[in-house]
Amino acid sequence: MGTQKKGTHLDLWQDSYAARAHNLRESEIRALFSVVSRPEVVSLAGGMPNIHDLPLAELAEGAKELVLNHGEQAMQYGSGQGWAPLRESITEVMSAEGINANPDNVVITTGSQQALDLVTQLFIEPGDVILAESPSYVGALGVFNAYQADVRHVGLDDQGLIPEEFASAVEQARGEGKRIKYLYTIPNFHNPAGVSMSIPRRKELVELCRKYGVLILEDNPYGLLGFEGQTMSPLVELAPDLVVYLGSFSKIFAPGFRIGWAYAPPAVRDKLIVASESAILSPSMVGQMAIHAYLRDYDWRGQIDSYRQMYRGRRDAMLDALATYLPECTWTVPEGGFYTWLTLPSGMDSKAMLSRAVTELVAYTPGTAFYADNQGHENLRLSFCYPPADEIREGVRRLAKVVEREIELLKLFGSQERH
Ligand code: PMP
Q1: Are 400 and 325 in contact (CB under 8 A)?
Q2: Percent composition of the chain: helix, strand, coil (DSSP 3-state, to 5)
Q3: Which residues contact 386 (CB under 8 A, 6 or more apart)?
Q4: Residue 84 contacts residue 103 (beta carbons within 8 Å)
């Protein structure tokens, strides 16, 4: 039997696991959960939506009506592809972003996280290349890692992913004889970078993907959360044949039902359905029917509007506090979504700094969580979705104290502490 690592449980089956099981890592965010859920800590770390203002009494009425009048269907297994009436209403949600979708090509999943898993399971053999923005969503990187993909990051700036860098990453990987399976991108209100891809870049990128024959996995859970009500044409509308698109109710309604979806060209859709049936048989009927009733009976567009206003207020509080307390740093200015991406002064290490931040009762996610290749030491992600504005200000004030002390230490001792 192999040697047991310090601090892990004794595992009789240590030598039995598949190679891919050794690639499963606890997410850096989950590791933080126990600490940041202490009430005295201001958490700027997680991506939990603020669902405080949801009309719970009305939702409870709806749930009661659902179980009383449609209980036998709601409590039963359903179709592997997802319940047809909900697939129909999902196309309405997609049309709010200008996507003209066909319900036949929608596959309902257990959150878009399951769709990420299914697509990766379908396409990736160990060593296959996935191109992803630099930085990229930690939960997607976890999936890619579990399937032993070779993730290559492609540069991004305040206009989103840089098409020329995408082209050179493709050339580079192909020059090495690698198989590129897809580009994973979050064009709208990026997690964690807080930026959106400009319209000209979307067109350029789609043309490049067509030229190189690269599939696009477009992840869009935040697209309806533009602070001015603005939406930007998703890539799938530009090139439906090249894109597997992922949507979710988690941020525009609530994550508790765990309902998301994939929208894919028919051949990929068929494979997704079979893969999903083999994983879960069918998505939760009660969850699907509850969301369908919500979309049918409730002013969901109005709810999204009120989310936008609430998150805009929190974004403003975050940016204001950063300008007041952290002039030595730079950050992105998000026009929607949940996050801003902060760059610390050169030589600092956000991961090493985290324990000191938690001592000062503030938490964030270190930049390294958003890279497959150990970049991001000088970055961190700040979320403004969950704490109210006054807590955000207080959190940033506490963070600034920690950063200032780190700068002093750096002046005294240099950056060797990182290694
Ligand atoms: N993609 C992105 C970019 C996300 O931020 C999240 C949630 N944080 C997900 C996918 C997964 O969302 P869900 O499974 O709740 O739909």
Answers
A1: yes
A2: 45, 15, 40
A3: 43, 46, 48, 49, 50
A4: yes
Instruction: Report which protein residue has its CA nearest ligand 1's atom 11.
Output: 113
DSSP helix/strand/coil, 142: helix
Residues 6+ positions from 81 with CB-CB distance below 8 Å:
87, 106, 107, 108, 269, 273, 276
Amino acid letter for position 57: A
Q: How far is the CA of 362 from the centre of ligand 1 (A)?
A: 23
Q: Give me ligand 1 centre to Cα 351, in Å.
A: 23
Helix axes 138-146, 111-123, angle to 10 degrees: 30
**The two three-digit tokens of residue 71, written as one number:** 């209980």
Q: Are 132 and 120 in contact (CB under 8 A)?
A: no
CA distances from 369 to 32, 114, 148, 161, 359 (A): 12, 20, 17, 19, 20
The model's pLDDT over 55-70, given as tens digits with 9 standing for 90+, comes to: 999 999 999 999 999 9
What's at 251, amino acid-wise?
A: K
Pocket lined around ligand 1, Cβ cut-off 6 Å: 47, 111-113, 137, 139, 186, 191, 219, 221, 248, 250, 255, 260
Residue whose tokens read 């026009």? 335
| β pairing state of 129-134 and 150-157 | parallel
Task: Return the ligand 1 atom nearest residue 47 CA.
Answer: 8
Q: Note the pLDDT tens digit of each residue in 221-239.
A: 999 999 999 999 899 999 9
- Tell me the best of 156, 219, 383 to mutate to test the pocket of ligand 1, counting ligand atoms within 8 Å of each CB and taking the most: 219
Which atom of ligand 1 lies nearest, measured to the CA of 116?
10
Condensed to tens digits (0 to 9), the pLDDT of residues 361-407 reads 999 999 999 999 999 999 999 999 999 999 999 999 999 999 999 99
Q: Considering only CA atoms, which residue is closest to atom 8 of ligand 1?
A: 47
What letter represents residue 378's amino acid? E
Q: Quick check: pTM over 0.90?
A: yes
Q: Exposure string (b/e) for 90-123, b if CB count within 10 Å is 16 or more? A: bbebbeebebebebebbbbbbbbbbbbbbbbbbb
Centroid of ligand 1 to alpha carbon of 112 (angstroms): 6
CA of 113 to the centre of ligand 1 (A): 6
